[in-house]
Amino acid sequence: MAIGDIKTFNITSGGLTLQVTAIDMGNGTTTFDIKCVSGYADINAIYWGDDVADGSQFDLGTKKDNSLNMNGTGVDFDGGLKLSSTGLGTEGVNKATYLTAGEHYSILGANVNWADVDVFGIRATSTSTAEGSIKGTDGSADVTLAPKVCVDDATPVVEGNNASFLIHLDHVYAYDVTVNYTTVGGTATDGTDYTHTQGSVVIHAGDLNATVLVATTDDAAVESTEGFTLHLTGATADIPGPDISVALLCIDGDGTILDNDVAPPPPPPVSDLGLSHGYWMTHDGTGPQPNDWNVATDTSFESIFGDHGSWDIDAPFDTNGAPYTQGAVVADIDFTLALSLGGGGQNALAREAVGAYLNAIDEDNVDNGGTGYDFAYSAQEVKDLVNDAFDTGNDGSGGHTMQQVIDLLLASHD
C-alpha cells in the first residue's frame, strides 16, 4: 500500500451510474470521490466494510429516521458517513450532494483505513431511477496503485533544434499528475549551449506521458558533442482535497547536442621551394587580409634587395635570365616575376630570397594569430644573407658563397 493507491467501485441502477474512487491518504485516512457518470441522484450516505460477514452491521439509520439504513443489502458494513438529509429542500438541485452527469462530491474519511475498504455502499434519494431511491453496493473494486514518474533520454539533436524529453507514468492514473523539472549543465553550458528551462508539465488523467522541449543554440564554434540533463525535482497528483506526492522512478534524462560547424582547413603545405603557396597573399584562402602582401604590386625587387653591381645584367633577355634583365630598369622586376625565375645561381638566389622574405613578413604580420609555420630568418636577416652572398662572391672569402645562401634560404622555409 502507498499514498495515492486507488480502489474504484461502480454502482448502477436503472440508468443511474455512480463511480466511487477510494484514495489512500496514508495515516489511516481515505478520501472518497463520488462521480455521477449518468443520471442524477442526491447522495445521502456512504458505507464501507472489509466484506467479512461478522454479524455486526453498521447502520446510520435511527428509530426516528431510518431513511439512511442499508437494510436488505446482505452486506455487513463496518462504517459509514452521513452526507446529507433526504430531500432536496430549499436548495433544490443546487444542493451539494445532488449530482448530475459529470459532477463530483468528495469527502475525507478521517479514520478509515484504505486497506479495509473492500465493499462500498451508497444510500441515495431523488434519483433518476424508477424507484426514486437506491441502496447500491459493489464488492468488486478495481485497484490502481499510485503511479511513478520517469523521464527518458532525448534523441540527440543537431544544435539549433529542440531536444525533446518524454516524461511518463508507469501506468495511467485517474487524476492529473504535475511534474516539475529543470535543466542542469554537463559538458554543455546551461544557458549558453541551450536555453535554461524549468517549470512543470501536466500528465492528464487517463494519459501516460507529456513532452518537454529544450531549445539548443546554433553557434559558430567548432565543438565536440555536448550533453546536459533534464532533472525532475518532484511530482504531485491533483486528487480531491490536498495534492499528494508522486514517487519519481528515474529523475534524470540526458540531452545530447551534435555540432554542425566545420573546422577550417589546416594551413597549406610548404612547397618544394619553401613557399607557402601564396599564404602570404591571402591567409585564409578567401581573399586579401589586412597586412597581406600582394607580390605583384606591393614592391619591386630592387627596393628590397638593392642594386648589386654583381647581378648579371648582360645575360640575354629570357625567362631564365638574371633578375635585372627582365625589364628596362631594375624597378621593373616585381616579386611575382622573381618567384617565377627558373634555373640556379643568381636566379635561384632571387627566387629563394623573395620566398623567404615574404614568409618572414607574413609571420611578423600575423603574430599571435599564426600562419602555422616558424621560419628561421626575419625579413632583415634574409636581406643580410643576400648581401652576404654578393659581398663574399663565389669563393666564400667573406662568409657564405651564393650557393650556401641559397641552401640556407631554402632550408629556412622548406
Write structural notes for this entry:
This protein is α+β, with helices and mostly antiparallel strands. It is built from five helices and 20 strands. It has helices at 301-305, 335-339, 345-365, 379-392, 402-412; strands spanning 6-13, 16-26, 29-38, 40-49, 79-82, 98-100, 104-109, 119-125, 134-138, 142-144, 148-151, 157-158, 162-169, 177-185, 198-203, 209-215, 226-237, 244-245, 247-248, 252-258. The strands form four sheets. Strands 12, 14, 15, 17, 18 and 20 form a six-stranded mixed beta sheet that branches. A five-stranded antiparallel beta sheet has the order 7-3-2-1-10, with no helix packed on it. Strands 4, 5, 6, 8 and 9 form a five-stranded antiparallel beta sheet that branches. The radius of gyration is 46 Å and the shape is rod-shaped. The model is unreliable at 268-293, 312-322, 324-332, 367-372 and 393-397 (pLDDT under 50).
User: For the CA atoms, what is the radius of gyration?
Assistant: 46 Å
Shape: rod-shaped
**Amount of beta strand:** 25-35%
* Structural class designation: alpha+beta
Main sheet overview: 6 strands, mixed
Task: Name the helicity range.
Answer: 10-25%
Q: How many strands appear in the DSSP assignment? A: 20
Q: Which sequence of SSEs, written as H and E, runs from N to C?
A: EEEEEEEEEEEEEEEEEEEEHHHHH
Number of helices: 5
Overall pLDDT metric: 81
Low-confidence stretches: 268-293, 312-322, 324-332, 367-372, 393-397
Distance between the termini: 81 Å
